[in-house]
Amino acid sequence: MRKLKNSELGRLNVEAFKKTKKIPLIVILDNIRSLNNIGSVFRTSDAFVVEKIYLCGITAKPPHKEIHKTALGATESVDWEYVEDTLLLIDNLKESGVVVASIEQAEGSVMLQDFNVEPTKKYAIIFGNEVKGVQQEVVSASNYCIEIPQLGTKHSLNISVSAGVVIWDLFKKFKF
Questions:
Q1: Which residues make Cβ contacts (< 8 Å) with residue 62, sequence separation at least 6?
Q2: How far apart are CA 116 and CA 80, in angstroms?
Q3: Is 129 helix (H, G, I), strand (E, B) or coil?
Q4: CB 35 within 8 Å of CB 58
Q5: The CATH number of domain 18-173, selected from 3.40.50.300, 3.40.50.720, 3.40.1280.10, 3.20.20.370
Q6: Is the peptide bond before 119 cis (omega within 30 degrees of 0)?
Q7: Nearest alpha-carbon partner for 141 in 153, 124, 156, 155
Q8: Conformation bin of residue 57: beta by default, left when phi > 0, alpha when psi is -120 to 50
Q9: In which element (H, E) is residue 94 found?
């Protein structure tokens, strides 16, 4: 067995990525403090052809060298937009028919493995602050809360890990 060289991977360039079909998924980063986490979510979103990322609240925006360090250019390929008010964004997305889900531990949450997507709908998933999680008012405004099952002693995962787990799971469910 031999590791493949980057030149053998057949990856898209930025122009081709912009034109390729995306999964019907929007990622919302709400008040994310860590620039490395932001960059990691961009890179994961590139890998699984996410439609768009919204950066909200205190979440930093590209270009920034600390975001670039983990995004490795994905800020150029993945469409993104800064919107200060997360609640206003959620209202606008819901009005346009997008199903909005906070990734959070909450009463009535749906476990990730039990959350099913409808192929004709577009979804937005919200990841919250590293310490406080998704704001309660944002949770309340969401159509769903999706919870990642955890069986160990810790009560949370790093936001970039959570994004990787959830985006991968939804990518598979979209049967892309």
A1: 42, 68, 71, 75, 80
A2: 25
A3: strand
A4: no
A5: 3.40.1280.10
A6: no
A7: 124
A8: left
A9: helix 86-95
Tens of pLDDT, residue by residue, the chain (176 residues): 999 999 999 999 999 999 999 999 999 999 999 999 999 999 999 999 999 999 999 999 999 999 999 999 999 999 999 999 999 999 999 999 999 999 999 999 999 999 999 989 999 999 999 999 999 999 999 999 999 999 999 999 999 999 999 999 999 999 87
Which of 15, 8, 72 lies closest to 38, judged by CA?
A: 72
Q: Counting beta carbons within 10 angstroms of the beta carbon of residue 56, is it exposed (0 to 12), middle (13 to 18) or buried (19 or more)?
A: buried
